[in-house]
Protein backbone atom coordinates (compact mmCIF):
# COMPACT_ATOMS: atom_id res chain seq x y z
CA UNK A 1 0.00 0.00 0.00
CA UNK A 2 3.01 2.25 0.48
CA UNK A 3 3.32 2.12 -3.33
CA UNK A 4 -0.25 3.25 -3.89
CA UNK A 5 -1.88 -0.17 -4.26
CA UNK A 6 -5.34 -0.18 -2.65
CA UNK A 7 -7.88 -2.98 -1.98
CA UNK A 8 -10.05 -3.81 -5.03
CA UNK A 9 -7.46 -2.22 -7.38
CA UNK A 10 -6.07 -4.71 -9.90
CA UNK A 11 -2.45 -5.89 -9.95
CA UNK A 12 -1.16 -7.86 -12.96
CA UNK A 13 1.21 -10.82 -13.12
CA UNK A 14 3.05 -11.72 -16.31
CA UNK A 15 5.52 -14.39 -15.28
CA UNK A 16 6.63 -17.99 -15.78
CA UNK A 17 5.48 -20.75 -13.41
CA UNK A 18 7.58 -20.45 -10.24
CA UNK A 19 7.16 -20.18 -6.46
CA UNK A 20 7.13 -16.36 -6.61
CA UNK A 21 4.04 -16.49 -8.84
CA UNK A 22 2.06 -18.37 -6.19
CA UNK A 23 3.45 -16.22 -3.36
CA UNK A 24 2.29 -13.12 -5.25
CA UNK A 25 -1.16 -14.61 -5.85
CA UNK A 26 -1.67 -15.60 -2.20
CA UNK A 27 -0.57 -12.12 -1.07
CA UNK A 28 -3.03 -10.48 -3.47
CA UNK A 29 -5.91 -12.76 -2.43
CA UNK A 30 -5.23 -12.03 1.24
CA UNK A 31 -5.28 -8.25 0.79
CA UNK A 32 -8.14 -8.12 -1.72
CA UNK A 33 -6.04 -7.05 -4.72
CA UNK A 34 -7.73 -8.58 -7.80
CA UNK A 35 -5.11 -10.43 -9.84
CA UNK A 36 -4.89 -9.99 -13.63
CA UNK A 37 -3.09 -12.98 -15.18
CA UNK A 38 -1.35 -13.39 -18.55
CA UNK A 39 0.39 -16.40 -20.10
CA UNK A 40 4.16 -15.92 -20.24
CA UNK A 41 4.03 -16.86 -23.94
CA UNK A 42 1.38 -14.29 -24.84
CA UNK A 43 2.44 -11.82 -27.54
CA UNK A 44 3.36 -8.22 -26.73
CA UNK A 45 0.26 -6.75 -28.38
CA UNK A 46 -2.08 -9.06 -26.43
CA UNK A 47 -0.36 -8.20 -23.12
CA UNK A 48 -0.54 -4.47 -23.84
CA UNK A 49 -4.23 -4.83 -24.73
CA UNK A 50 -5.01 -6.62 -21.45
CA UNK A 51 -3.02 -4.22 -19.26
CA UNK A 52 -4.75 -1.24 -20.82
CA UNK A 53 -8.19 -2.84 -20.69
CA UNK A 54 -7.82 -3.44 -16.92
CA UNK A 55 -6.08 -0.05 -16.39
CA UNK A 56 -3.28 -1.79 -14.47
CA UNK A 57 -0.92 0.41 -12.41
CA UNK A 58 1.20 -2.36 -10.79
CA UNK A 59 2.75 -5.34 -12.57
CA UNK A 60 4.74 -8.37 -11.34
CA UNK A 61 7.05 -10.06 -13.87
CA UNK A 62 10.45 -11.69 -14.38
CA UNK A 63 13.63 -10.08 -15.68
CA UNK A 64 13.54 -12.20 -18.87
CA UNK A 65 10.00 -11.13 -19.77
CA UNK A 66 10.66 -7.55 -18.71
CA UNK A 67 13.63 -7.22 -21.05
CA UNK A 68 12.40 -9.32 -23.99
CA UNK A 69 8.68 -8.46 -24.15
CA UNK A 70 7.61 -5.66 -21.82
CA UNK A 71 10.31 -3.06 -22.41
CA UNK A 72 9.26 -2.38 -26.00
CA UNK A 73 5.54 -1.94 -25.20
CA UNK A 74 5.76 0.15 -22.00
CA UNK A 75 5.13 3.42 -23.90
CA UNK A 76 1.78 1.91 -25.00
CA UNK A 77 0.64 1.37 -21.37
CA UNK A 78 0.20 4.91 -19.99
CA UNK A 79 -1.34 3.99 -16.59
CA UNK A 80 1.40 1.57 -15.52
CA UNK A 81 3.44 3.06 -12.66
CA UNK A 82 5.26 0.20 -10.86
CA UNK A 83 6.97 -2.96 -12.12
CA UNK A 84 8.16 -5.58 -9.61
CA UNK A 85 10.55 -8.26 -10.89
CA UNK A 86 10.78 -11.55 -8.99
CA UNK A 87 14.42 -12.46 -9.71
CA UNK A 88 17.01 -12.03 -6.98
CA UNK A 89 19.35 -9.70 -8.87
CA UNK A 90 19.82 -6.08 -9.88
CA UNK A 91 19.01 -4.70 -13.30
CA UNK A 92 19.71 -1.45 -15.11
CA UNK A 93 16.71 0.86 -15.49
CA UNK A 94 18.23 2.65 -18.47
CA UNK A 95 15.91 2.87 -21.45
CA UNK A 96 12.69 2.54 -19.45
CA UNK A 97 10.04 5.31 -19.37
CA UNK A 98 10.48 7.81 -16.53
CA UNK A 99 6.85 7.31 -15.52
CA UNK A 100 7.52 3.67 -14.52
CA UNK A 101 9.40 2.70 -11.36
CA UNK A 102 11.11 -0.70 -11.30
CA UNK A 103 11.61 -2.62 -8.04
CA UNK A 104 12.89 -6.04 -7.00
CA UNK A 105 10.61 -8.36 -4.99
CA UNK A 106 13.26 -8.38 -2.27
CA UNK A 107 12.90 -4.59 -1.93
CA UNK A 108 9.11 -4.95 -1.64
CA UNK A 109 9.53 -7.56 1.10
CA UNK A 110 11.85 -5.30 3.06
CA UNK A 111 9.49 -2.36 2.58
CA UNK A 112 6.55 -4.37 3.88
CA UNK A 113 8.48 -5.57 6.93
CA UNK A 114 8.94 -2.03 8.29
CA UNK A 115 6.55 -1.33 11.25
CA UNK A 116 5.37 1.98 9.78
CA UNK A 117 4.15 0.15 6.64
CA UNK A 118 2.21 -2.60 8.47
CA UNK A 119 -1.30 -1.37 7.77
CA UNK A 120 -4.46 -3.28 8.67
CA UNK A 121 -5.28 -6.02 6.16
CA UNK A 122 -8.56 -5.61 4.30
CA UNK A 123 -9.76 -9.15 3.61
CA UNK A 124 -12.05 -10.01 0.68
CA UNK A 125 -15.61 -11.28 0.94
CA UNK A 126 -16.89 -14.15 -1.28
CA UNK A 127 -18.41 -11.79 -3.87
CA UNK A 128 -15.22 -9.73 -4.33
CA UNK A 129 -13.24 -10.01 -7.56
CA UNK A 130 -10.34 -12.51 -7.25
CA UNK A 131 -8.92 -12.90 -10.77
CA UNK A 132 -9.29 -11.50 -14.25
CA UNK A 133 -7.81 -14.43 -16.17
CA UNK A 134 -6.89 -13.70 -19.77
CA UNK A 135 -7.35 -16.67 -22.05
CA UNK A 136 -4.62 -17.72 -24.47
CA UNK A 137 -6.70 -16.49 -27.39
CA UNK A 138 -7.29 -19.69 -29.40
CA UNK A 139 -10.08 -17.88 -31.28
CA UNK A 140 -8.57 -14.41 -31.65
CA UNK A 141 -7.98 -11.56 -29.19
CA UNK A 142 -7.68 -12.80 -25.57
CA UNK A 143 -10.67 -12.30 -23.28
CA UNK A 144 -10.44 -11.60 -19.55
CA UNK A 145 -12.63 -13.99 -17.53
CA UNK A 146 -14.07 -12.38 -14.36
CA UNK A 147 -13.65 -14.81 -11.43
CA UNK A 148 -14.79 -13.95 -7.89
CA UNK A 149 -13.53 -15.63 -4.70
CA UNK A 150 -16.63 -17.81 -4.28
CA UNK A 151 -16.18 -19.07 -7.88
CA UNK A 152 -12.65 -20.28 -7.08
CA UNK A 153 -13.63 -21.93 -3.79
CA UNK A 154 -16.60 -23.68 -5.41
CA UNK A 155 -14.54 -25.02 -8.31
CA UNK A 156 -11.72 -26.30 -6.10
CA UNK A 157 -14.17 -27.93 -3.68
CA UNK A 158 -15.55 -29.96 -6.57
CA UNK A 159 -12.11 -30.88 -7.91
CA UNK A 160 -10.62 -31.96 -4.57
CA UNK A 161 -13.57 -34.23 -3.81
CA UNK A 162 -12.44 -36.49 -6.69
CA UNK A 163 -8.82 -36.79 -5.45
CA UNK A 164 -8.69 -39.34 -2.60
CA UNK A 165 -6.43 -38.90 0.45
CA UNK A 166 -5.06 -35.53 -0.65
CA UNK A 167 -2.74 -34.30 2.11
CA UNK A 168 0.76 -33.58 3.49
CA UNK A 169 2.16 -36.90 2.25
CA UNK A 170 1.65 -35.77 -1.35
CA UNK A 171 4.16 -33.99 -3.57
CA UNK A 172 2.92 -32.13 -6.64
CA UNK A 173 5.16 -31.17 -9.56
CA UNK A 174 4.22 -27.77 -10.99
CA UNK A 175 5.24 -27.05 -14.58
CA UNK A 176 2.10 -26.04 -16.48
CA UNK A 177 1.41 -22.28 -16.91
CA UNK A 178 0.07 -20.79 -13.67
CA UNK A 179 -1.98 -18.40 -15.79
CA UNK A 180 -4.01 -21.49 -16.81
CA UNK A 181 -6.98 -22.22 -14.52
CA UNK A 182 -6.06 -25.93 -14.25
CA UNK A 183 -2.62 -25.20 -12.78
CA UNK A 184 -3.77 -22.29 -10.61
CA UNK A 185 -6.57 -24.24 -8.91
CA UNK A 186 -4.36 -27.35 -8.57
CA UNK A 187 -1.65 -25.42 -6.75
CA UNK A 188 -4.04 -23.50 -4.48
CA UNK A 189 -5.61 -26.86 -3.57
CA UNK A 190 -2.17 -28.27 -2.74
CA UNK A 191 -1.44 -25.29 -0.47
CA UNK A 192 -4.84 -25.76 1.22
CA UNK A 193 -4.25 -29.46 1.93
CA UNK A 194 -0.60 -29.06 2.94
CA UNK A 195 0.92 -30.84 -0.09
CA UNK A 196 4.52 -30.09 -1.08
CA UNK A 197 4.99 -28.32 -4.44
CA UNK A 198 8.10 -28.60 -6.59
CA UNK A 199 8.49 -26.15 -9.48
CA UNK A 200 9.65 -27.37 -12.87
CA UNK A 201 9.16 -26.61 -16.57
CA UNK A 202 8.31 -28.69 -19.67
CA UNK A 203 11.99 -28.37 -20.74
CA UNK A 204 13.37 -29.85 -17.46
CA UNK A 205 10.65 -32.33 -16.48
CA UNK A 206 12.35 -35.65 -17.24
CA UNK A 207 15.89 -36.98 -17.73
CA UNK A 208 15.37 -36.74 -21.51
CA UNK A 209 14.04 -33.16 -21.51
CA UNK A 210 15.65 -30.63 -23.84
CA UNK A 211 17.28 -28.49 -21.14
CA UNK A 212 18.67 -31.39 -19.08
CA UNK A 213 22.36 -32.10 -19.64
CA UNK A 214 23.02 -35.66 -20.81
CA UNK A 215 23.68 -37.85 -17.78
CA UNK A 216 21.92 -35.44 -15.40
CA UNK A 217 18.59 -36.06 -13.71
CA UNK A 218 15.38 -34.30 -14.62
CA UNK A 219 13.09 -32.66 -12.08
CA UNK A 220 10.76 -35.68 -11.78
CA UNK A 221 13.67 -37.96 -10.91
CA UNK A 222 14.81 -35.56 -8.18
CA UNK A 223 11.39 -34.63 -6.77
CA UNK A 224 9.64 -38.02 -7.16
CA UNK A 225 6.14 -36.49 -7.18
CA UNK A 226 3.00 -38.39 -6.16
CA UNK A 227 0.57 -36.12 -8.05
CA UNK A 228 0.84 -34.68 -11.52
CA UNK A 229 -1.38 -32.69 -13.86
CA UNK A 230 -0.78 -32.85 -17.59
CA UNK A 231 -2.28 -31.78 -20.88
CA UNK A 232 -2.81 -34.51 -23.52
CA UNK A 233 0.01 -33.16 -25.70
CA UNK A 234 2.55 -33.92 -22.92
CA UNK A 235 1.14 -37.43 -22.38
CA UNK A 236 1.15 -38.11 -26.14
CA UNK A 237 4.85 -37.20 -26.26
CA UNK A 238 5.67 -39.53 -23.35
CA UNK A 239 3.71 -42.32 -25.05
CA UNK A 240 5.52 -41.92 -28.38
CA UNK A 241 8.97 -41.62 -26.74
CA UNK A 242 8.51 -44.81 -24.70
CA UNK A 243 7.06 -46.81 -27.59
CA UNK A 244 9.93 -45.62 -29.80
CA UNK A 245 12.42 -47.01 -27.24
CA UNK A 246 10.46 -50.28 -27.14
CA UNK A 247 10.98 -50.65 -30.90
CA UNK A 248 14.75 -50.33 -30.31
CA UNK A 249 14.79 -53.24 -27.82
CA UNK A 250 16.03 -56.67 -28.84
CA UNK A 251 13.46 -59.27 -29.86
CA UNK A 252 13.20 -60.94 -26.42
CA UNK A 253 12.78 -57.65 -24.51
CA UNK A 254 10.24 -56.37 -27.01
CA UNK A 255 8.22 -59.59 -26.83
CA UNK A 256 8.23 -59.56 -23.00
CA UNK A 257 7.10 -55.92 -22.96
CA UNK A 258 4.26 -56.61 -25.42
CA UNK A 259 3.09 -59.70 -23.50
CA UNK A 260 3.07 -57.79 -20.21
CA UNK A 261 1.34 -54.80 -21.81
CA UNK A 262 -1.39 -56.90 -23.45
CA UNK A 263 -1.96 -59.00 -20.31
CA UNK A 264 -2.26 -55.96 -18.04
CA UNK A 265 -4.55 -54.28 -20.57
CA UNK A 266 -6.98 -57.20 -20.31
CA UNK A 267 -6.75 -57.17 -16.50
CA UNK A 268 -7.49 -53.43 -16.34
CA UNK A 269 -10.51 -53.83 -18.61
CA UNK A 270 -11.89 -56.30 -16.06
CA UNK A 271 -11.12 -54.00 -13.12
CA UNK A 272 -7.97 -55.80 -11.87
CA UNK A 273 -4.26 -54.98 -11.61
CA UNK A 274 -1.23 -57.08 -12.59
CA UNK A 275 1.47 -56.65 -9.88
CA UNK A 276 4.01 -58.99 -11.50
CA UNK A 277 3.75 -57.15 -14.82
CA UNK A 278 4.33 -53.86 -13.00
CA UNK A 279 7.92 -54.96 -12.31
CA UNK A 280 8.58 -54.82 -16.07
CA UNK A 281 7.31 -51.24 -16.17
CA UNK A 282 9.58 -50.04 -13.36
CA UNK A 283 11.95 -48.26 -15.76
CA UNK A 284 9.06 -46.53 -17.51
CA UNK A 285 7.62 -45.36 -14.17
CA UNK A 286 11.05 -43.96 -13.30
CA UNK A 287 10.68 -41.41 -16.14
CA UNK A 288 8.28 -39.51 -13.82
CA UNK A 289 10.12 -40.35 -10.60
CA UNK A 290 8.51 -43.74 -9.93
CA UNK A 291 6.17 -42.43 -7.23
CA UNK A 292 3.16 -41.01 -9.13
CA UNK A 293 -0.10 -42.33 -7.60
CA UNK A 294 -2.51 -40.28 -9.69
CA UNK A 295 -2.40 -38.18 -12.84
CA UNK A 296 -5.03 -35.69 -13.95
CA UNK A 297 -5.43 -34.76 -17.60
CA UNK A 298 -7.24 -31.62 -18.72
CA UNK A 299 -7.22 -28.86 -21.31
CA UNK A 300 -8.20 -31.07 -24.28
CA UNK A 301 -9.54 -34.60 -24.94
CA UNK A 302 -7.09 -37.41 -24.15
CA UNK A 303 -7.01 -40.23 -26.68
CA UNK A 304 -8.05 -43.68 -25.36
CA UNK A 305 -4.74 -45.19 -26.57
CA UNK A 306 -2.65 -42.69 -24.61
CA UNK A 307 -4.84 -43.03 -21.51
CA UNK A 308 -4.45 -46.82 -21.56
CA UNK A 309 -0.69 -46.47 -22.04
CA UNK A 310 -0.40 -44.21 -18.96
CA UNK A 311 -2.61 -46.58 -16.90
CA UNK A 312 -0.49 -49.58 -17.82
CA UNK A 313 3.07 -48.27 -17.89
CA UNK A 314 2.89 -45.78 -15.01
CA UNK A 315 0.74 -48.10 -12.88
CA UNK A 316 -1.63 -45.38 -11.69
CA UNK A 317 -5.11 -44.07 -12.49
CA UNK A 318 -5.30 -41.27 -15.04
CA UNK A 319 -8.26 -39.03 -14.27
CA UNK A 320 -9.69 -37.11 -17.18
CA UNK A 321 -11.28 -33.81 -16.32
CA UNK A 322 -13.42 -31.36 -18.23
CA UNK A 323 -13.73 -27.71 -17.33
CA UNK A 324 -13.02 -24.26 -18.72
CA UNK A 325 -11.60 -20.98 -17.50
CA UNK A 326 -15.21 -19.75 -17.44
CA UNK A 327 -16.12 -22.52 -14.95
CA UNK A 328 -12.94 -22.21 -12.84
CA UNK A 329 -11.61 -25.43 -14.33
CA UNK A 330 -14.48 -27.42 -12.79
CA UNK A 331 -17.08 -29.44 -14.65
CA UNK A 332 -16.46 -33.18 -14.54
CA UNK A 333 -13.65 -35.51 -13.40
CA UNK A 334 -13.53 -39.30 -13.63
CA UNK A 335 -13.60 -41.36 -10.44
CA UNK A 336 -10.31 -43.05 -9.50
CA UNK A 337 -11.88 -46.50 -9.89
CA UNK A 338 -13.22 -45.69 -13.37
CA UNK A 339 -10.80 -47.20 -15.92
CA UNK A 340 -13.01 -46.57 -18.94
CA UNK A 341 -11.49 -44.47 -21.73
CA UNK A 342 -12.74 -41.59 -23.86
CA UNK A 343 -14.94 -40.19 -21.08
CA UNK A 344 -14.42 -37.23 -18.72
CA UNK A 345 -16.44 -38.43 -15.74
CA UNK A 346 -19.55 -37.28 -13.93
CA UNK A 347 -20.40 -33.71 -12.85
CA UNK A 348 -18.60 -32.44 -9.74
CA UNK A 349 -20.49 -31.56 -6.55
CA UNK A 350 -20.09 -27.84 -7.31
CA UNK A 351 -22.06 -27.77 -10.55
CA UNK A 352 -24.72 -29.18 -12.84
CA UNK A 353 -24.28 -30.26 -16.46
CA UNK A 354 -27.00 -30.41 -19.11
CA UNK A 355 -27.11 -30.90 -22.86
CA UNK A 356 -28.86 -28.52 -25.27
CA UNK A 357 -29.98 -29.65 -28.72
CA UNK A 358 -27.81 -28.47 -31.59
CA UNK A 359 -29.98 -29.37 -34.54
CA UNK A 360 -27.71 -27.88 -37.21
CA UNK A 361 -24.89 -30.18 -36.14
CA UNK A 362 -27.21 -33.17 -35.85
CA UNK A 363 -27.06 -33.56 -32.06
CA UNK A 364 -30.23 -33.86 -29.93
CA UNK A 365 -31.35 -35.35 -26.59
CA UNK A 366 -33.32 -37.94 -28.57
CA UNK A 367 -30.16 -39.41 -30.18
CA UNK A 368 -29.57 -43.15 -29.74
CA UNK A 369 -28.00 -44.89 -27.92
CA UNK A 370 -27.33 -41.83 -25.69
CA UNK A 371 -28.56 -38.20 -25.62
CA UNK A 372 -26.19 -35.66 -27.18
CA UNK A 373 -25.98 -31.89 -27.43
CA UNK A 374 -24.05 -28.73 -26.54
CA UNK A 375 -22.69 -28.89 -22.98
CA UNK A 376 -23.96 -26.26 -20.54
CA UNK A 377 -22.41 -25.96 -17.07
CA UNK A 378 -24.25 -24.22 -14.25
CA UNK A 379 -23.40 -23.54 -10.62
CA UNK A 380 -21.50 -21.30 -8.18
CA UNK A 381 -18.23 -22.06 -9.99
CA UNK A 382 -19.40 -20.29 -13.18
CA UNK A 383 -17.57 -16.98 -13.69
CA UNK A 384 -19.38 -13.64 -13.97
CA UNK A 385 -18.49 -13.18 -17.64
CA UNK A 386 -15.84 -11.50 -19.77
CA UNK A 387 -14.31 -8.21 -18.73
CA UNK A 388 -15.76 -5.31 -20.73
CA UNK A 389 -17.21 -7.65 -23.36
CA UNK A 390 -21.00 -7.43 -23.20
CA UNK A 391 -21.57 -8.99 -26.63
CA UNK A 392 -19.90 -12.28 -25.60
CA UNK A 393 -21.47 -12.21 -22.13
CA UNK A 394 -25.01 -12.11 -23.50
CA UNK A 395 -24.36 -15.06 -25.81
CA UNK A 396 -22.22 -17.30 -23.60
CA UNK A 397 -23.61 -16.75 -20.07
CA UNK A 398 -27.20 -16.71 -18.81
CA UNK A 399 -29.25 -16.93 -15.59
CA UNK A 400 -32.04 -19.51 -15.31
CA UNK A 401 -35.39 -19.03 -13.58
CA UNK A 402 -33.82 -20.04 -10.23
CA UNK A 403 -31.06 -17.44 -10.50
CA UNK A 404 -28.35 -20.02 -11.25
CA UNK A 405 -25.61 -18.91 -13.63
CA UNK A 406 -24.85 -21.07 -16.71
CA UNK A 407 -22.08 -21.09 -19.29
CA UNK A 408 -22.57 -22.34 -22.86
CA UNK A 409 -19.31 -24.18 -23.60
CA UNK A 410 -19.56 -24.67 -27.38
CA UNK A 411 -18.47 -28.29 -26.84
CA UNK A 412 -20.74 -31.17 -27.81
CA UNK A 413 -21.17 -34.01 -25.34
CA UNK A 414 -22.81 -37.41 -25.04
CA UNK A 415 -24.26 -38.48 -21.68
CA UNK A 416 -23.86 -42.15 -20.73
CA UNK A 417 -26.41 -44.04 -18.57
CA UNK A 418 -24.08 -43.96 -15.51
CA UNK A 419 -24.00 -40.15 -15.60
CA UNK A 420 -20.54 -39.83 -17.20
CA UNK A 421 -19.92 -37.37 -19.99
CA UNK A 422 -18.06 -37.93 -23.24
CA UNK A 423 -16.86 -35.05 -25.44
CA UNK A 424 -17.74 -35.88 -29.03
CA UNK A 425 -17.39 -32.61 -30.96
CA UNK A 426 -16.96 -28.85 -30.83
CA UNK A 427 -19.32 -26.44 -32.57
CA UNK A 428 -16.50 -24.22 -33.89
CA UNK A 429 -14.66 -27.26 -35.30
CA UNK A 430 -17.55 -28.27 -37.55
CA UNK A 431 -17.24 -27.37 -41.26
CA UNK A 432 -19.85 -28.01 -43.96
CA UNK A 433 -18.24 -29.18 -47.21
CA UNK A 434 -19.40 -28.18 -50.68
CA UNK A 435 -21.44 -31.36 -51.08
CA UNK A 436 -23.24 -30.83 -47.75
CA UNK A 437 -21.31 -33.24 -45.49
CA UNK A 438 -20.31 -31.98 -42.02
CA UNK A 439 -16.70 -32.61 -40.97
CA UNK A 440 -15.54 -32.35 -37.35
CA UNK A 441 -11.94 -31.16 -37.61
CA UNK A 442 -11.24 -32.01 -33.96
CA UNK A 443 -12.46 -35.57 -34.47
CA UNK A 444 -10.20 -36.01 -37.53
CA UNK A 445 -7.16 -34.63 -35.66
CA UNK A 446 -7.76 -36.77 -32.58
CA UNK A 447 -8.01 -39.90 -34.72
CA UNK A 448 -4.94 -39.20 -36.87
CA UNK A 449 -2.62 -38.42 -33.95
CA UNK A 450 -2.33 -42.20 -33.66
CA UNK A 451 -0.12 -42.19 -36.79
CA UNK A 452 3.47 -43.05 -35.84
CA UNK A 453 4.79 -40.50 -38.36
CA UNK A 454 2.76 -37.64 -36.84
CA UNK A 455 3.63 -35.54 -33.78
CA UNK A 456 0.88 -32.96 -34.35
CA UNK A 457 -1.79 -32.33 -36.97
CA UNK A 458 -4.24 -29.61 -37.94
CA UNK A 459 -7.09 -30.52 -40.30
CA UNK A 460 -8.51 -27.75 -42.49
CA UNK A 461 -11.56 -27.50 -44.72
CA UNK A 462 -13.35 -24.79 -46.71
CA UNK A 463 -17.09 -24.72 -47.31
CA UNK A 464 -16.45 -23.98 -51.01
CA UNK A 465 -14.37 -27.17 -51.40
CA UNK A 466 -15.32 -30.85 -51.24
CA UNK A 467 -12.29 -32.29 -49.42
CA UNK A 468 -10.18 -31.91 -46.27
CA UNK A 469 -6.47 -31.01 -46.20
CA UNK A 470 -4.01 -31.10 -43.30
CA UNK A 471 -0.84 -29.57 -41.90
CA UNK A 472 1.40 -32.01 -40.06
CA UNK A 473 4.37 -31.72 -37.71
CA UNK A 474 6.07 -35.06 -38.46
CA UNK A 475 7.98 -37.18 -35.97
CA UNK A 476 11.58 -36.33 -36.84
CA UNK A 477 13.06 -39.67 -35.84
CA UNK A 478 10.47 -41.78 -37.73
CA UNK A 479 10.39 -39.61 -40.86
CA UNK A 480 14.21 -39.40 -41.06
CA UNK A 481 14.43 -43.20 -40.78
CA UNK A 482 11.86 -43.55 -43.57
CA UNK A 483 13.79 -41.06 -45.72
CA UNK A 484 17.03 -43.04 -45.23
CA UNK A 485 15.18 -46.23 -46.14
CA UNK A 486 14.02 -44.61 -49.38
CA UNK A 487 17.51 -43.12 -50.06
CA UNK A 488 16.29 -39.54 -49.66
CA UNK A 489 19.08 -37.32 -48.33
CA UNK A 490 19.18 -33.73 -47.14
CA UNK A 491 18.51 -31.46 -44.19
CA UNK A 492 15.39 -31.89 -42.03
CA UNK A 493 13.71 -29.05 -43.95
CA UNK A 494 14.57 -30.68 -47.29
CA UNK A 495 13.17 -34.03 -46.13
CA UNK A 496 9.91 -32.39 -45.05
CA UNK A 497 9.47 -30.55 -48.35
CA UNK A 498 10.29 -33.59 -50.48
CA UNK A 499 7.15 -34.57 -52.47
CA UNK A 500 7.72 -38.28 -51.83
CA UNK A 501 7.61 -37.78 -48.05
CA UNK A 502 4.24 -36.02 -48.34
CA UNK A 503 2.97 -39.03 -50.28
CA UNK A 504 4.26 -41.45 -47.60
CA UNK A 505 2.67 -39.50 -44.72
CA UNK A 506 -0.59 -39.28 -46.66
CA UNK A 507 -0.50 -43.04 -47.26
CA UNK A 508 -0.15 -43.71 -43.52
CA UNK A 509 -2.91 -41.20 -42.74
CA UNK A 510 -5.26 -43.10 -45.08
CA UNK A 511 -4.32 -46.46 -43.52
CA UNK A 512 -4.99 -45.26 -39.97
CA UNK A 513 -8.16 -43.41 -41.00
CA UNK A 514 -9.52 -46.51 -42.72
CA UNK A 515 -8.68 -48.77 -39.76
CA UNK A 516 -10.63 -46.54 -37.35
CA UNK A 517 -13.48 -46.13 -39.83
CA UNK A 518 -13.35 -42.43 -40.60
CA UNK A 519 -15.79 -41.48 -43.36
CA UNK A 520 -14.29 -41.03 -46.83
CA UNK A 521 -14.98 -37.29 -46.83
CA UNK A 522 -13.26 -36.92 -43.39
CA UNK A 523 -9.90 -38.26 -44.59
CA UNK A 524 -7.40 -35.54 -45.63
CA UNK A 525 -6.64 -35.69 -49.35
CA UNK A 526 -3.51 -33.51 -49.26
CA UNK A 527 -0.87 -32.77 -46.63
CA UNK A 528 1.82 -30.19 -45.89
CA UNK A 529 4.74 -31.20 -43.64
CA UNK A 530 6.07 -28.56 -41.25
CA UNK A 531 9.72 -28.92 -40.17
CA UNK A 532 9.09 -26.52 -37.25
CA UNK A 533 7.19 -27.89 -34.21
CA UNK A 534 4.16 -25.92 -32.98
CA UNK A 535 4.83 -24.53 -29.51
CA UNK A 536 3.19 -21.72 -27.52
CA UNK A 537 6.23 -19.59 -28.40
CA UNK A 538 5.42 -19.83 -32.11
CA UNK A 539 1.92 -18.51 -31.46
CA UNK A 540 0.35 -21.43 -33.36
CA UNK A 541 -0.92 -23.29 -30.27
CA UNK A 542 -2.11 -22.12 -26.84
CA UNK A 543 -0.26 -22.82 -23.59
CA UNK A 544 -2.47 -25.88 -23.20
CA UNK A 545 -1.30 -26.90 -26.73
CA UNK A 546 -4.73 -26.37 -28.29
CA UNK A 547 -4.54 -25.42 -31.95
CA UNK A 548 -4.99 -21.75 -32.82
CA UNK A 549 -6.88 -22.33 -36.06
CA UNK A 550 -6.93 -18.71 -37.20
CA UNK A 551 -3.17 -18.30 -36.71
CA UNK A 552 -2.44 -21.66 -38.37
CA UNK A 553 -4.60 -20.71 -41.33
CA UNK A 554 -2.75 -17.40 -41.77
CA UNK A 555 0.64 -19.08 -41.30
CA UNK A 556 -0.06 -21.70 -43.97
CA UNK A 557 -2.17 -19.56 -46.32
CA UNK A 558 0.20 -20.10 -49.25
CA UNK A 559 0.08 -23.89 -48.73
CA UNK A 560 -3.73 -23.84 -48.44
CA UNK A 561 -3.96 -22.09 -51.81
CA UNK A 562 -1.49 -24.60 -53.28
CA UNK A 563 -3.37 -27.65 -51.95
CA UNK A 564 -6.71 -26.27 -53.15
CA UNK A 565 -5.22 -25.59 -56.58
CA UNK A 566 -5.55 -21.81 -56.49
CA UNK A 567 -1.93 -21.17 -57.45
Automatic annotation (TrEMBL):
| EC number in record | 6.2.1.3
GO CC, alphabetical: endoplasmic reticulum; lipid droplet; plasma membrane
Domain AMP-dependent synthetase/ligase span(s) in chain numbering: 3-387
One MF term in the entry's GO annotations: arachidonate-CoA ligase activity
Provide one Gene Ontology biological process annotation: neuron differentiation
Q: Which SUPFAM superfamilies match?
A: Acetyl-CoA synthetase-like (SSF56801)
- Alphabetic keyword roster: Fatty acid metabolism, Ligase, Lipid metabolism
Give the matching Pfam families.
AMP-binding
Q: What is this protein called?
A: long-chain-fatty-acid--CoA ligase
Recorded source organism is: Pygocentrus nattereri (Red-bellied piranha)
